[in-house]
Amino acid sequence: MRTDIRENAARYYDLSPENPDDIPWYEQKIPSPEARILELGCGTGRVLVPLAEQSGYILGVDISEAMLSVCRRKLAEKGIPTTRAEVQQGDITDLEVGKRFDLILAPFRVFQTLETDREVGGFFKTIRNHLTEEGTAILNVFRPKLDRDRMRDEWVTGGERLRWEVPFEGGQVTLHDRRSRMDRERLVLYPELIYRRYRNDELVDEALIKIAMRCYYPEELLNLIAAHGFRVVDKYGGYAGERYSEGPELIVEFAGSA
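User: That's the sequence. What structure does it adopt?
Assistant: Structure tokens below.
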């Protein structure tokens, strides 16, 4: 059985000030109040829960049962019934739920955690098998700040870097990262994220996550989507109207081939 690498950190995920202000943007992408939505990599429901209140039905899938437990609690607290929103544990690269959806989402870096070409191919197969004829899918990655050569030369740094610190239950939670290795040929980054919880100045909890983050450049991402048989509908550089390849994000909306 696969280890849930996010088990110990799930309680801290929603504290992050780095989470984007993308909910209003996704709400505008819901095609109708009756729309059926599939979210791949729904995590704690940061996106799923607000969209559940704006759509006919939403299904969230994530590999982490710990993250899904947080999401289920949020749905229960909102009083959203299972006829409107459900979540299930599953592999988004090898998935069959027997339903089709008007909108399929993979928000905030989910796609970049797919390390291998096999996983990427499985992800697009999942979308193909679950998208209605008129439906669209949206995926997001970050736009690298460095070109390929500089990324290879500069990303690995060693040591720890403080990413953020926020108040939490009579103390604070910090997030540090370590950048100790990367796949230079395929440009896959392997950051280690360390959450630390303090009560006053005493360390009372620590959670370490080791993840993969595969880098994509603007034209490369568009070509990849086309190579898997999809048609680009629109593309965006961020959630505040930035142009594609000019903003901090690479967001692509696509559909089945014409």
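The chain has two domains: 10-144+216-256, 148-213.
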